[in-house]
Amino acid sequence: MNGNAVFQTQLAGLTLRSRGKVRDIYDLGDSLLIVATDRISAFDVVMPTPIPDKGKILTQVSAFWFDFFKEMVPSHLLATDADRFPEVCRPYREELSGRTMWVRKAHPLPVECIVRGYLVGSGWKDYQKTGAVCGIGLPQGLQLAQQLPEPIFTPSTKAEKGAHDENISFDEMVRLVGKDLAEQVRDLSLSIYQKGAAHARERGIILADTKLEFGLLDGKLILIDEVLTPDSSRFWPADRYQVGSNPESFDKQYLRDYLVASGWKDGQPAPELPQEVVENTRSRYLEALERLTGKGLEG
């Protein structure tokens, strides 16, 4: 493993609540530590090779967006500065620095909120088969990577570990969380996407789609998890975008494409990644950070 990468944390004395595909979450009682490691996943499989600084990039991008959207919706974020973390975290300051969010505990909604502004990925496959995306009818004759007439909201379930998320209808979301909350989340998701996409476009990036998560804190809706990162979104360079072809990306689509071209199949053990793929993936994440936030990597 690269000496500059953190693949997995071991923080003795802190309660590990869960270890996801990318993040290690520690329970501090009424708050959580979300540590973004340098693990990377593709097709819901964690690669054995880390991407150095990836966790720091994700944390910095999310922190930027939480602040950017704070007038629209509050978030769970308390701090990203390790010096402000609770005293129990101090022995691990160096390991946590730059890659960790200290957040309020919330009750996560049991849905992932996906907004699609362009026809690509699973949406494109769905459209080719049905003329719709997740049951939402679209005009005939749209091409790969074409911008949709307007962004669409396509929620999904949160899958158990090792399983795939499943798209659900808005009516099913209403049954899960109630009509008022479902409508509030849908409208807020679309607004976040549109405002984020406008900001990204000013910086030469197309935000093709994104996944958002929300929770309830004291009965109020807040934004949680990560926001408009290269892990949760598709980012394309606007100057190289062409309708009808899969655009280059600043996200992990590059890794997905590499895996497909290598002949790797879903269900097989995840392969070690060549150094070139590691470096190219890191550079894409880093460029997304620099363009979106106007800042380089910190910490």
TrEMBL record:
SUPFAM superfamilies: SAICAR synthase-like. One of its GO terms (molecular function) is phosphoribosylaminoimidazolesuccinocarboxamide synthase activity. Residues 18-267 form the SAICAR synthetase/ADE2 N-terminal domain. One of its GO terms (biological process) is 'de novo' IMP biosynthetic process. Pathway: Purine metabolism; IMP biosynthesis via de novo pathway; 5-amino-1-(5-phospho-D-ribosyl)imidazole-4-carboxamide from 5-amino-1-(5-phospho-D-ribosyl)imidazole-4-carboxylate: step 1/2. It catalyses: 5-amino-1-(5-phospho-D-ribosyl)imidazole-4-carboxylate + L-aspartate + ATP = (2S)-2-[5-amino-1-(5-phospho-beta-D-ribosyl)imidazole-4-carboxamido]succinate + ADP + phosphate + 2 H(+). PROSITE patterns: SAICAR_SYNTHETASE_2. It is an enzyme of class 6 (ligase). Keywords: ATP-binding, Ligase, Nucleotide-binding, Purine biosynthesis. GO terms for cellular component: cytoplasm. The keyword Ion transport does not apply. It holds the Pfam family SAICAR_synt. Its EC number is 6.3.2.6. Belongs to the SAICAR synthetase family. This is Phosphoribosylaminoimidazole-succinocarboxamide synthase. It comes from Desulfacinum hydrothermale DSM 13146.
